[in-house]
Design goal:
Elements: E1 2-8, E2 17-20, E3 33-35, E4 44-46, H1 60-76, E5 103-111, E6 114-122, E7 127-135, E8 141-147, E9 150-153, H2 158-166, H3 174-181, H4 187-196, H5 205-217, H6 221-231, H7 246-259, E10 263-266, E11 269-276, E12 279-285
Antiparallel strand pairs: 1-2, 1-5, 3-4, 5-6, 6-7, 7-8, 8-9, 10-11, 11-12
Helix pairs in contact: 2-3, 5-6
Length: 287
């Protein structure tokens, strides 16, 4: 679960900002979730949802885009970016480009009942700094710390850590690289970005509709989906499945099978299309 997200010098945000889901005295008691965050310690109160209010062009959408940028860096900086290519960072545009001021991204999480901290500083040229800590017994434990000078490894999974360090690139995150080397100690952190930090966007509408349809078919998930629709005040009180025309259904199935793992030539660029956790990812490679 997400405790807090922080960033600085990212998109339309020059100064440091944070989005916290930790409950306060103003939170309604019946919505607060008590979540354990360390062994033998008292749980922490978290909110299951939050809302962002503001005028038009005040940065509401950009906050989500900054979070999405961080997810992109973690998932794809090692797998998809060219070894000597630039980092597609989006700093605050009114800052002096010559200053080389890095963009900062941080998250505080609770994974399997243990608090974790992860963050990094990046410029268009390189990862300046990157770190990860956990708090299994309430005290901070180093997982790794990476600077321009090198990588300091924690006690756990040092062999995998050294293997990760051996193939680490200046423009790829250590966490992203660790996923490729099978670093078990960092896998839960990487998987949180892959499976939990998801965004409802125009380009994944079809996948989200498929997920909703699947939930409406399940005995336990159907009522959860309907309850969420009713709470959103969409005017929806129920939902029934309509069978597609058999011929149309077959055409859709063929299209889906074609898209899975297919490689198509589009305007001189090779685009590999794959389905992963109901998300459609497009991998662009230079032709």
């Amino acid at each position: 679960m997400l405790l807090e997200f922080r960033a600085e010098n990212a998109r339309s945000f020059r100064d440091r900002f944070s989005l916290s889901l930790e409950a306060t005295r103003l939170s309604e008691p019946d919505v607060v979730r008590e979540v354990p965050w360390r062994e033998g310690g008292s749980p922490i109160g978290l909110l299951p949802a939050t809302a962002i209010f503001g005028a038009n062009a005040s940065g509401k959408s950009n906050l989500l885009r900054v979070m999405s940028d961080m997810r992109t860096f973690v998932l794809f900086s090692f797998r998809l970016w060219r070894a000597e290519g630039p980092i597609p960072v989006k700093p605050f545009r009114l800052c002096d480009p010559a200053s080389g001021q890095p963009s900062r991204y941080e998250v505080d999480l609770i994974l399997a009942g243990v608090r974790h901290e992860y963050g990094f500083l990046v410029t268009a040229e390189q990862v300046v700094e990157e770190w990860a800590h956990s708090y299994p017994r309430g005290r901070r434990m180093l997982l790794f710390r990476r600077t321009v000078a090198g990588v300091e490894l924690g006690r756990a999974e040092r062999k995998k850590g050294r293997a990760t360090e051996a193939i680490l690139r200046r423009n790829a995150l250590f966490l992203s690289t660790a996923a490729a080397t099978g670093h078990e100690g960092l896998e839960p952190l990487y998987e949180w970005f892959r499976r939990n930090l998801l965004f409802a966007q125009e380009d994944n509408r079809t996948a989200r509709q498929a997920l909703t349809a699947e939930m409406l078919e399940g005995e336990t998930t159907r009522e959860q989906a309907l309850a969420l629709m009713r709470e959103a005040d969409l005017g929806i009180t129920g939902a029934n499945r309509l069978e597609l025309d058999p011929e149309l259904h077959e055409q859709i199935q063929q299209a889906v099978e074609t898209l899975k793992g297919d490689v198509a030539e589009v305007e001189g660029a090779r685009i590999a299309v794959e389905f992963e956790d109901f998300e459609l990812r497009l991998k662009h490679h230079a032709g």
